[in-house]
Amino acid sequence: MFALEFARSLNARRAPAFAPLAIPPSLEELVRDRVAAFDQEIRRLLAVVAAVERLSLSLLQAVEPEAEAALDAAVDAGALVVGDDGIVGVTHPLLASAAYGGLLPSERRALHVRLAAASSDLEERARHLALASGEPDAGVARLLDEAAVRACARGAPDTAAELAQEAVRVTPAADSSEREERELALATYLFKAGRHADARAQLDTFLASGVAGPRRARAAMLCCDVDHDPKVIAPKLEEALEHVFDDRLIRAYVLLRMSTQELGQHEVPLGCEAGREEQGASERPAREAARIAEEIDDPALLAMALSVVAWSAAADGRPERSLMERALALAEAHGTLPGWPTPRMVMAVDYSLWNGDLQRARELLEVELDVIVREGREYDRVRVLTALAELEWHAGRWERAERHVSDLDELASYGDQTAEAFAMMARGRLAAARGDVDHARRLLAEASGRSEARHMPLVSARWALASLELSLEQPARAYEILAGIGSVSPHITFHLERLHALTDTVEALVGLGDLDRAEQGLMGLEALSRENHLWAVPATLRCRALLLLARGNGKAAVDAAQEAADGFGATGFPLDQGRARLVAGEALRRLGERRRAADKLEAAKAIFTDLGAAIWAAHAGKELRRASPRPRRDGELTNAERRVAALVASGKTNREVASQLFTTITTVEAHLTRIYRKLDLRSRTELARRVADGTVSLAEE
Asked: pTM for the complete prediction?
């Protein structure tokens, strides 16, 4: 009841956010008599405790020189306690609030003046001076500015926002320029604290005031960070560019933001030349920003500009590693500017992770996460944690990936909707890999819906859902999901999963018997493979093995699949390695080399089992049973005949059965002849009826 009454009182509260809570009238009578029974000296001590977050004995003595005797009396009276660490506390917070509320306004201000003079901490001193200021004060406003910067730097943007709000309040009316700067700083702190609605409201008020010039440009850019809607961002960036005037530093920032926004709206499909003009529209402003950074001799800005140039070039299929290395070296020497992307993230995600160099990507991302935590840039943690979760998923370290997802969940619990979407996507991907089908579908569908509502479509969620359908031997569903992925922005995909989507598209098309289109889809991967892309080389070989097997060239399929498995093993992609071995085992089985097939399939099953990939482990087990069939009595169907019978009973034509089983129509017809003879049947209709009523079982041995 006490808590509810305090909460209700906050709605009507007009005091600074960091001021001690006042006793609401509904509770005042409960404690008034108790506090009134204490001596005046004890009530003064209670008021000091209410005014200070952690009151040390030394601070108490500095504020109240005669406090020692009163403190003993307060402890004896059950009003105060002194901890082993020397911190003075109250036996019940209502007592302190009531004592503070009983002071006259002039007495409160005088108390905070004394506390400010005795405080060694900048933020505490600024807070007390703000509470002591009944009128505007330029000096106090400047101190609050400094304290807000300090609070944000230590990772407390919420506190920074409270201090900035007070700085705006105590700014003299004549200091209009300083007020504008503080109002913009307040919006920035609110955004960094994840309070996007408050930041948007503050920016709307700020822009409506008619401010012009570089400050308006900065506010317009901040609007782009707060709102992910491209329809809002594009005009805001144009507005920002119009108001930079002769401020070259702000111009460079606007150009970089335009570059990253342009890059997010266009994608060049792998193996395709279309769209290069749009990609150039992203790279040109980034190069101009880099030129400005060199002219004004700002190495930290130059590092960011070069990383955006390299990011754009990588998305265009022209990676400039030397440029990226220079950006990274500049960032290491001169620090990283706040904003996105940082050189370390571009090198980690768009170069190392994209290329399949998991160890290098992991090293860079872990350093980036440490820096972000140390600097309190909570708003940047989402991207790094998502990339780490993806990386560890690829590496088969799924428990570690889950820990990163839990950190995303924590950020989501504070209201970060982007973190919530990414966490759902990553957790859905893990559930899909582990065979938790219903849970995976629900999470991935919800992640896609939430991200698209925020104008941040997640390729990762769509690819994971398609991959799940493929593992369930539903190539048509998988292809339907995968067909539209090429139109989604690359910087949301974390790139490597875009290649995964391409390989799964090839596999789905092979499963559908559309080998010509599968061949076309493989062209982009082969182009990367010729550039020695660490992941694309074995991925191309696995896809090639699937095509060779579908075309009846089992021996070449075995060689390609085995080389793919070795490549994935060397680069540290265990799930991909297991899938390549599965293809090799299936090819050997079809060649009649059952012993060698069993060895490959056992190895694949061991990988899947160790990972916890239940569906793929079941696939490997099924192939093992096919490779080592039990002796049969005359009249029993073989596993091959059972598969044909099941497909025919489901209503498929001989041509469709041949396509799905990667065999010929003649072979299907031969199987049907034996099936009819063994089961004493005359037609497909009779077969379907017998299967439906349960008199014929087609479960494999």
From this structure: 0.69
